[in-house]
Design goal:
With about 450 residues, this protein is of the alpha/beta class. It is built from 14 helices and 15 strands. The strands form 3 sheets. Strands 1-3-2-6-8-7-14-15-11-9-10 form an 11-stranded mixed beta sheet, with helices on both faces. Helix 3 packs antiparallel against helix 4 (about 50-60). The longest helix is centred in the last third of the chain and has 24 residues, at about 295-320. It starts with a helix and ends in a 10-residue tail after the last helix.
Amino acid sequence: MTSICELSATALARAIAGGELSSRDVVEAHLARIVDQDAQLAAFVTVDADGARRAAQICDAASAPIGPLHGVPIAIKDLTDTAGLATTYGSVLFRDHVPAEDDLVVGRLRRAGAIILGKSNTPEFGFGAVCTNKLRGPTRNPFDLALTSGGSSGGSAVGVAAGMVPLAHGTDFGGSVRTPASFCEVASIRPTPGRIPSPRRPLGWDMLATHGFLARGVDDLALALSVCAGDDAKDPLSTGVYNDDRPLAGRPRIAVTPDFGVAPVSRDVRARFAAACDALAGVADLLPFSPNCSGAIETFRTLRAAHIANSYGELLRTRRTELTPTVIWNIEAGAELSAEDYLNAERRRTAIYRSFRALFARADFLIAPAASVFPWPNEISDVTAIDGVALETPIDYLAVTFMVSLVGFPVLTLPVRRGENELPFGIQIIAPPGCESRLFAFGRSTENELGFSHRRPKLP
């Protein structure tokens, strides 16, 4: 049972398809791990043991593999609809909400043969630095139970790190797969916006939020993305995404930046990042370039606030007492913005995008920290200062990740090597839009040659 839970999704899919393991045995092993660990970790809001067993029985009875993820257990972040399975969005307002239809990404995972074990925890509506809400949490970091797992895909990150699932779905607005991946020493992918369509998204051209995945290795991320990517006519972003799978010629050229020139990043993170760059110098040519990101923090604040106020303003007016303080702050931040504020932010965003494009004329990848700080105690709800310097808003600690969300470039996050007494930490590997295949190829070589890969936590 223990060895099954340490296998990757790719290895499990291969073993089940080859008859070496049954899907039922794989599902039971992971359900047992959840029973053993989740009382202390709180990674799941809902566990669907009966549904998972029925799905495993169907897989085992099939005459041929259903798809590339045949019989493999996964978790779905509880912001994303699952037909017949409670989807709370981390809010008591939706405690009893059971969608009638799957979100597109969930449907594609099911058609690929994946088995949903349950819904992973998230802050209310995904807004929060600590993965907790009035229903469940805090989701505890498996490397130190007193510390946060990160927001807002913390449940997915912990489920993967602790071996409760080999693969988990997440969403990323300003760093919500990347920060938990860094804190919990797992890998993550935030793909090019539109690579995984969102046909129900009310603002069809909004590219700030994307689906993504968390796993213990690059191969599993590539496998998950391969079954979920593809056009959908109802998502205008998806129809324009191309796939540039041309291999790199020669030694990679990597631009490195600890902060994009503007992001607040702690001294300790800068030291760990410098050590990671020293290791990367053994496999690539490092270039001290950064895109011009002046004004990016204010730009993201404005766009994010406007989107949140537009999406959740009515809830604030009618159900304020039932919302968490973090959600209230996020909605109110956009209440006074004008059309001019919004359009000026879009103008600045365009200039930053073009600066990123200019950088990639000289470099193959851009490397930055995947978090500005290390995990902090769960009792502290927000990062209000870094190295004693106060932050202007509670989201500014995410600047090192939301910089990339702003321009919509794909990002692979990998854990870096660490000492026994060091906390987990990861790097962002950024590529031009459409270059996920190139990211995965470089990520595999980095895992193999530098040992930038997951190590299992020593849970009590």
